[in-house]
């Protein structure tokens, strides 16, 4: 099935650029330039060089022997947890900071919820010597102190968003307002395949290095480029988009997306957008989101900060609606158990976001020869406190 953004920035019924008029020049500048910059040979060279020497790519494709025995399939882990800063997010921030330079931007802004995208942005700004301001909800700053300090150590100013619920959506509003007031010299780095066109397509292209590598790595080990399954967790959908990208048009490859079901999809404490959401506009694009009858955004819940988002990117909404990807959800409990299991079987403590993808293995049935690639989006160091609080290991 063809899964690509059209001229107007749509994937099927989802996408577009629903932005205030005052933001139009900023987004339009990006839209007109992103493809020629991304396809420029010099840009590709700089991007590849930093991915190799700074991020540590290619990340290994690791055959997980004990996990494979447990689930009776050939399971490979794509080790994005070994990227610099501990997750896939830096693939995108490296790409966007190089793009910002090509557009002659001097300053960077970003918003962050849990702080992971903020840290990945602060990291590349330090690397490039660029000024960086990260907006973060006041409550999130309290909850995620270590990441706030990480950003500060890296030289970034963290600005509290003090309006509304003082969380991610308020930080997003503040960042938008800042960008409207500084259209010429500032680039806004969005951290997932969300936001107005061209962000979802641009971020997916930067993350597509994941499946580009999987293809040649599988060829080396299994003698074939295409697995039977690719599994990834979905918050906004960027690590999944990266892992799926080069398989969209190969219908033999089953794409499995896993959302966070929190305390359970019937409890009102969940973040499983495809189960609970309806079409609407969120952060500049038409997509699926959790909302009240009146269209007000419902606060999501998940034990994992990175999946605690009320919507999904438009490409994920399209993958769901078209049936090209199958969506599962995993509760806090299921994810925590899966995280401990991987630790015990393979000596890898995963991020709790990633543990949701691992939990899907319990819900699926494989035949013995099935080749399964699971995108190990991040490492668990940042989640140690959550593991300790959960306690059952
Ligand atoms: C942020 C994050 C996610 C969720 O974001 P996506 O855009 O859906 O990939 C998943 N895993 C880890 C480790 C993260 O840090």
Fold and architecture overview:
- This protein is an alpha/beta fold.
- The chain folds into two domains: 17-50 and 89-203, Rossmann fold, CATH 3.40.50.1100; 56-87 and 208-390, Rossmann fold (3-Layer(aba) Sandwich), CATH 3.40.50.1100.
- It has helices spanning 24-39, 41-55, 65-71, 89-102, 116-128, 138-143, 145-153, 168-181, 199-207, 209-222, 238-244, 273-276, 314-322, 332-346, 352-359, 384-390, and strands spanning 10-11, 14-15, 61-63, 74-78, 107-112, 131-137, 157-161, 186-188, 229-233, 254-262, 278-282, 285-289, 325-331, 371-375.
- The strands form four sheets. The protein has a six-stranded mixed β-sheet with strand order 3-4-14-9-10-13, sandwiched between helices. The chain has a four-stranded parallel β-sheet with strand order 7-6-5-8, with helices on both faces.
- β1 (10-11) and β2 form a beta hairpin.
- α2 (41-55) runs antiparallel to α4.
- It is globular.
- The protein starts with 9 loop residues before the first strand and ends with a helix.
- The relative contact order is 0.16.
- The mean pLDDT is 97.
- The protein binds pyridoxal-5'-phosphate (PLP).
- The site of pyridoxal-5'-phosphate has 18 residues, from α11 and α15.
- Pyridoxal-5'-phosphate (PLP) binds at residues 87, 89, 116, 192, 233-239, 306-307, 351, 353-354, 377-378.
